Amino acid sequence: MLPDLPPLPALTRAEGDLIDRYLETADLLGRVNPARGGDTYRGLRAAQALVRKAAELRDALALMHQRGETELHGDTLARALRVLDGERRTARVALPPDGVG
Fold first, then answer.
1. Which residue in 26, 70, 83, 84 has the most C-beta neighbors within 10 A?
2. Are 49 and 28 in contact (CB under 8 A)?
3. Do the Cβ atoms of 48 and 28 come closer than 8 Å?
4. pLDDT digits (tens, 9 = 90+) for 20-54
């Protein structure tokens, strides 16, 4: 049985899209991270997908702006990122500790 996750904070649909696109982009950047090793084909495929996901991330932010959602509520969005395993997913973008790759 899986442990109960804390509930997601209340988000607008546009904020939810922003969080989803941000994490998808971070996942792809983690796959491209040259410090993590791996083969070039995998990195190439991730980089190709990154172009599309970056455009979707841009579109999510543009929609928020057009709707008058001009402020990002960092505390609320950070809680949503944590619930969706954002700390682990975004950590793959950073340099690994020495000797790990």
1. 26
2. yes
3. no
4. 999 999 999 999 999 988 899 999 999 999 999 99
C-alpha 65/C-alpha 88 separation (Å) is 28
- Give the distance between the most distant pair of CA atoms in the chain: 47
The reported pTM is 0.86
The stretches of 33-73 forming alpha helices (DSSP H) are: 40-66
Residue 13, C-beta contacts closer than 8 angstroms, at least 6 positions apart: none
Burial of 90 (0-12, 13-18, 19+ CB in 10 A): middle
